[in-house]
Amino acid sequence: MHTEHLTHVRPTRVLVAWLIAIAVASLIGLMIASAGAEDGPGAAGAALAVIIGFFVGGFFAGFRAMHAPILHGVALGLFSLVAWVLLNVVARGATPGFGWEALTPTGAGAILLAQMGAGVAGAWTGYAVALRGQPEPDD
Fold first, then answer.
1. Which residues contact 91 (CB under 8 A, 6 or more apart)?
2. Displacement of CA 1 from its chain's centroid (Å)
């Protein structure tokens, strides 16, 4: 068993993994929307896209780092929170009437936990594949 240390978490690796997660989630959302959904992917489709995207981003982080998979997955979710706050500040400054009325605090917390959970699962799988060449660790 290994221990998790913050010294193994690199901000650039988390940023690249987050960008991969957002790109994959956007691609899946676009695929759902192009498959015939009139109003976009809907809540369940969007949640599925986010979970798959952050699993892939976490896999990248865990596979590249080969250290601290749990911290990398949590860092992906925390980076989403930082990006969301920065986006709100920029959007509020550009358009004074801008607001996120569609996203409730409970919904925001749920999607943040889903991002962290999927990121940790992906990072753990990537870590196991990088070290052992298979998704399930041998104990």
1. 98
2. 25
**Distance (Å, rounded) from C-alpha 50 to C-alpha 137?**
25
Per-residue pLDDT at 114 exceeds 60: yes
Tokens of 123: 């990072």
* Residues whose CB is less than 8 angstroms from the CB of residue 67 and which lie 6 or more positions away in sequence, other chains included: 2, 5, 8, 127
- In tens, the pLDDT along 6-16 reads 777 888 988 99
- Among 26, 30, 35, 49, which residue's Cα sits nearest to residue 111? 49
pTM, two decimal places:
0.82
Burial classification of residue 95, based on how many CB atoms lie within 10 Å of its CB (0-12 exposed, 13-18 middle, 19 or more buried): exposed
Q: What are the structure tokens assigned to 9, written together?
A: 């978490």
3-state DSSP assignment of residue 33: helix
Distance CA 90, CA 97 (A): 12
